[in-house]
Amino acid sequence: MSRQEIPTPHGPARVELHCAPEGRAALLLGHGAGGGIEAPDLVAAARAACSVGVHVALVEQPYRVAGRRAPAPAKQLDTAWLAVADTLGAGIFDDLPLVFGGRSSGARVACRTATLGQAVAVLCLAFPVHPPGRPEKHRLDELHAVDAPVLVVQGERDPFGRPEAAHHREVVLLAGDHSLKADPDGITRAVSEWLDRVLRPLD
Questions:
Q1: 131-143 mean pLDDT
Q2: Pairing outcome for strands 25-30 and 54-60
Q3: What is the CATH number of the domain that holds 8?
Q4: DSSP label at 23?
Protein backbone atom coordinates (compact mmCIF):
# COMPACT_ATOMS: atom_id res chain seq x y z
CA MET A 1 0.00 0.00 0.00
CA SER A 2 1.24 3.49 -0.85
CA ARG A 3 -0.18 7.02 -0.84
CA GLN A 4 0.31 9.93 -3.17
CA GLU A 5 -1.22 13.33 -3.84
CA ILE A 6 -2.50 14.20 -7.29
CA PRO A 7 -3.11 17.79 -8.40
CA THR A 8 -6.61 18.68 -9.63
CA PRO A 9 -8.20 22.01 -10.65
CA HIS A 10 -9.72 22.20 -7.16
CA GLY A 11 -6.68 21.36 -5.07
CA PRO A 12 -4.77 18.14 -4.43
CA ALA A 13 -6.58 14.83 -4.15
CA ARG A 14 -5.02 11.94 -2.27
CA VAL A 15 -4.98 8.32 -3.39
CA GLU A 16 -4.22 5.20 -1.40
CA LEU A 17 -2.97 2.50 -3.76
CA HIS A 18 -3.43 -1.23 -3.21
CA CYS A 19 -1.79 -3.21 -5.98
CA ALA A 20 -2.64 -6.77 -6.93
CA PRO A 21 0.28 -9.07 -7.86
CA GLU A 22 -0.72 -9.07 -11.54
CA GLY A 23 -3.14 -6.29 -12.41
CA ARG A 24 -5.73 -7.03 -15.08
CA ALA A 25 -7.58 -3.74 -14.44
CA ALA A 26 -7.78 -0.89 -11.94
CA LEU A 27 -10.67 0.13 -9.71
CA LEU A 28 -10.97 3.73 -8.52
CA LEU A 29 -13.15 4.07 -5.42
CA GLY A 30 -14.54 7.32 -4.03
CA HIS A 31 -15.88 8.00 -0.53
CA GLY A 32 -19.24 9.29 0.66
CA ALA A 33 -20.08 12.93 1.29
CA GLY A 34 -19.24 12.99 4.98
CA GLY A 35 -16.98 9.98 5.29
CA GLY A 36 -13.55 8.84 4.20
CA ILE A 37 -11.87 5.97 2.40
CA GLU A 38 -11.79 3.89 5.59
CA ALA A 39 -15.54 3.12 5.33
CA PRO A 40 -16.13 -0.63 5.85
CA ASP A 41 -17.78 -1.17 2.48
CA LEU A 42 -14.92 0.50 0.62
CA VAL A 43 -12.39 -1.61 2.52
CA ALA A 44 -14.35 -4.78 1.67
CA ALA A 45 -14.63 -3.80 -2.00
CA ALA A 46 -10.91 -3.03 -2.21
CA ARG A 47 -10.10 -6.42 -0.70
CA ALA A 48 -12.43 -8.10 -3.19
CA ALA A 49 -10.84 -6.35 -6.16
CA CYS A 50 -7.29 -7.26 -5.17
CA SER A 51 -8.36 -10.89 -4.73
CA VAL A 52 -9.29 -11.11 -8.42
CA GLY A 53 -6.21 -9.30 -9.73
CA VAL A 54 -7.52 -5.73 -9.84
CA HIS A 55 -5.43 -2.81 -8.57
CA VAL A 56 -7.31 -0.35 -6.34
CA ALA A 57 -6.99 3.40 -5.83
CA LEU A 58 -9.02 4.76 -2.91
CA VAL A 59 -9.53 8.41 -3.82
CA GLU A 60 -9.92 11.25 -1.31
CA GLN A 61 -11.53 14.30 -2.84
CA PRO A 62 -9.72 17.66 -2.47
CA TYR A 63 -12.23 19.03 0.04
CA ARG A 64 -11.41 16.15 2.39
CA VAL A 65 -7.68 16.56 1.87
CA ALA A 66 -8.10 20.24 2.77
CA GLY A 67 -9.83 19.28 6.01
CA ARG A 68 -13.35 20.37 5.06
CA ARG A 69 -16.30 18.18 5.97
CA ALA A 70 -18.95 19.74 3.72
CA PRO A 71 -18.70 18.27 0.21
CA ALA A 72 -17.82 20.37 -2.80
CA PRO A 73 -20.42 20.99 -5.55
CA ALA A 74 -21.02 18.12 -7.94
CA LYS A 75 -19.16 19.74 -10.85
CA GLN A 76 -16.05 20.19 -8.70
CA LEU A 77 -16.24 16.59 -7.46
CA ASP A 78 -16.55 15.31 -11.04
CA THR A 79 -13.72 17.49 -12.35
CA ALA A 80 -11.36 16.44 -9.56
CA TRP A 81 -12.28 12.78 -10.03
CA LEU A 82 -11.57 12.87 -13.75
CA ALA A 83 -8.24 14.60 -13.12
CA VAL A 84 -7.23 11.76 -10.80
CA ALA A 85 -8.43 9.15 -13.30
CA ASP A 86 -6.48 10.81 -16.13
CA THR A 87 -3.30 10.96 -14.06
CA LEU A 88 -3.51 7.34 -12.91
CA GLY A 89 -4.60 6.12 -16.34
CA ALA A 90 -1.58 7.76 -17.97
CA GLY A 91 0.78 6.64 -15.21
CA ILE A 92 0.68 3.68 -12.86
CA PHE A 93 -2.45 2.23 -14.50
CA ASP A 94 -1.31 2.83 -18.09
CA ASP A 95 -3.01 0.50 -20.61
CA LEU A 96 -5.29 -1.03 -17.96
CA PRO A 97 -9.08 -0.94 -18.16
CA LEU A 98 -10.50 1.41 -15.52
CA VAL A 99 -13.50 0.61 -13.34
CA PHE A 100 -15.07 3.57 -11.53
CA GLY A 101 -16.81 3.15 -8.20
CA GLY A 102 -17.60 4.53 -4.80
CA ARG A 103 -20.04 4.64 -1.93
CA SER A 104 -23.06 6.98 -1.72
CA SER A 105 -21.92 10.38 -3.09
CA GLY A 106 -18.85 8.67 -4.54
CA ALA A 107 -21.09 6.27 -6.44
CA ARG A 108 -22.92 9.23 -7.97
CA VAL A 109 -19.60 10.76 -9.07
CA ALA A 110 -18.58 7.43 -10.63
CA CYS A 111 -21.83 7.27 -12.61
CA ARG A 112 -21.71 10.87 -13.80
CA THR A 113 -18.12 10.58 -15.03
CA ALA A 114 -18.13 7.02 -16.38
CA THR A 115 -18.65 7.90 -20.03
CA LEU A 116 -16.18 10.79 -20.15
CA GLY A 117 -13.62 8.77 -18.18
CA GLN A 118 -14.09 5.72 -20.44
CA ALA A 119 -14.78 3.41 -17.51
CA VAL A 120 -15.43 -0.19 -18.56
CA ALA A 121 -17.74 -0.79 -15.57
CA VAL A 122 -19.15 1.03 -12.52
CA LEU A 123 -19.44 -0.22 -8.94
CA CYS A 124 -22.02 1.55 -6.74
CA LEU A 125 -22.04 0.91 -3.00
CA ALA A 126 -25.11 2.31 -1.19
CA PHE A 127 -26.25 4.43 -4.15
CA PRO A 128 -28.42 7.24 -2.68
CA VAL A 129 -31.49 6.95 -4.91
CA HIS A 130 -33.27 9.78 -3.08
CA PRO A 131 -33.02 11.75 0.16
CA PRO A 132 -34.65 9.87 3.07
CA GLY A 133 -38.41 10.25 2.91
CA ARG A 134 -38.28 12.12 -0.44
CA PRO A 135 -38.71 9.46 -3.15
CA GLU A 136 -39.92 12.08 -5.62
CA LYS A 137 -36.43 13.68 -5.61
CA HIS A 138 -34.73 10.68 -7.14
CA ARG A 139 -31.33 10.57 -8.88
CA LEU A 140 -31.99 7.57 -11.09
CA ASP A 141 -31.02 9.53 -14.21
CA GLU A 142 -27.39 9.26 -13.08
CA LEU A 143 -27.64 5.46 -13.02
CA HIS A 144 -29.61 5.25 -16.26
CA ALA A 145 -26.95 7.31 -18.07
CA VAL A 146 -24.26 4.65 -17.57
CA ASP A 147 -23.83 2.42 -20.63
CA ALA A 148 -21.17 0.18 -19.06
CA PRO A 149 -22.01 -2.75 -16.75
CA VAL A 150 -23.08 -1.59 -13.28
CA LEU A 151 -23.20 -3.40 -9.95
CA VAL A 152 -25.21 -1.79 -7.14
CA VAL A 153 -24.71 -3.22 -3.64
CA GLN A 154 -27.45 -1.89 -1.38
CA GLY A 155 -28.61 -2.41 2.19
CA GLU A 156 -32.10 -3.87 2.50
CA ARG A 157 -33.06 -1.15 5.00
CA ASP A 158 -31.37 1.78 3.26
CA PRO A 159 -33.49 4.91 3.89
CA PHE A 160 -32.01 6.39 0.70
CA GLY A 161 -33.97 3.83 -1.32
CA ARG A 162 -32.79 1.21 -3.73
CA PRO A 163 -32.69 0.99 -7.51
CA GLU A 164 -34.12 -1.83 -9.55
CA ALA A 165 -32.06 -4.13 -11.74
CA ALA A 166 -32.04 -3.13 -15.41
CA HIS A 167 -30.18 -3.73 -18.66
CA HIS A 168 -26.46 -3.80 -17.79
CA ARG A 169 -27.31 -3.16 -14.12
CA GLU A 170 -27.24 -5.78 -11.37
CA VAL A 171 -28.48 -5.10 -7.84
CA VAL A 172 -27.35 -7.11 -4.82
CA LEU A 173 -29.27 -6.57 -1.58
CA LEU A 174 -27.51 -7.26 1.69
CA ALA A 175 -28.57 -7.08 5.32
CA GLY A 176 -28.16 -3.62 6.81
CA ASP A 177 -28.71 0.05 6.11
CA HIS A 178 -26.92 2.81 4.19
CA SER A 179 -23.63 2.18 6.01
CA LEU A 180 -23.37 -1.37 4.59
CA LYS A 181 -21.50 -2.36 7.78
CA ALA A 182 -23.56 -5.46 8.55
CA ASP A 183 -22.21 -7.86 5.92
CA PRO A 184 -18.67 -7.06 4.70
CA ASP A 185 -18.22 -10.66 3.57
CA GLY A 186 -21.29 -10.30 1.39
CA ILE A 187 -19.78 -7.21 -0.21
CA THR A 188 -16.51 -9.04 -0.84
CA ARG A 189 -18.29 -11.98 -2.48
CA ALA A 190 -20.55 -9.83 -4.65
CA VAL A 191 -17.80 -7.50 -5.83
CA SER A 192 -15.18 -10.17 -6.52
CA GLU A 193 -17.62 -12.34 -8.50
CA TRP A 194 -18.92 -9.40 -10.54
CA LEU A 195 -15.49 -7.93 -11.30
CA ASP A 196 -14.12 -11.29 -12.37
CA ARG A 197 -17.09 -11.82 -14.69
CA VAL A 198 -17.24 -8.37 -16.32
CA LEU A 199 -13.48 -8.20 -16.85
CA ARG A 200 -13.09 -11.69 -18.30
CA PRO A 201 -13.85 -10.60 -21.90
CA LEU A 202 -11.10 -7.96 -21.58
CA ASP A 203 -8.37 -10.33 -20.32
A1: 91
A2: parallel
A3: 3.40.50.1820
A4: -
